[in-house]
Amino acid sequence: MTNENIQINNIVETIDNNTLTKTGENTYTAIIPLNKIKNGITNNIKISIQWVDNELDSTQDISIGATSNPKLHIPITVHVSQYLGETISEYVENVENP
């Protein structure tokens, strides 16, 4: 996303309880079995974001907050492929000590 103050807080699948694994900085992976797809089971992904307060951006934040029904465009790309037994490894963030 272009605004670094808007961060993904949580991602969950809310209908079928599929586990989503964070596999990259902004990438999540889940396995949806073919039999569930064939049976028409729907998956609903809920993405929670947080807006981190940054005093340097107060003018822009106030402008957005003062707008009636402001819209925020969040780009999402979905990539679907057949699961062939690959290992799904959880992403570990590289946090440097100050």
Description:
The strands form 2 sheets. The protein has a two-stranded antiparallel sheet with strand order 1-4. A two-stranded antiparallel ribbon has the order 2-3. The protein contains 2 helices and 4 strands. With 98 residues, the protein is α+β, with helices and mostly antiparallel strands. The radius of gyration is 18 Å and the shape is extended. The model has no long low-confidence stretch (mean pLDDT 83).
| Number of E strands | 4
Termini Cα gap: 25 Å
- Compute the gyration radius: what is it? 18 Å
Shape: extended
Structural class: alpha+beta
Order of helices and strands: EEEHEH
Uncertain spans: none
Count the helices. How many?
Answer: 2
The strands making up the biggest β-sheet line up spatially as 1-4
Indicate the mean pLDDT.
Answer: 83
Main sheet characteristics: 2 strands, antiparallel
Q: Report the portion of residues in β strands.
A: 15-25%
Helix content: 10-25%
Detail the topology: elements first, then pairings.
Layout: E1 6-13, E2 21-24, E3 27-29, H1 34-38, E4 45-51, H2 58-65
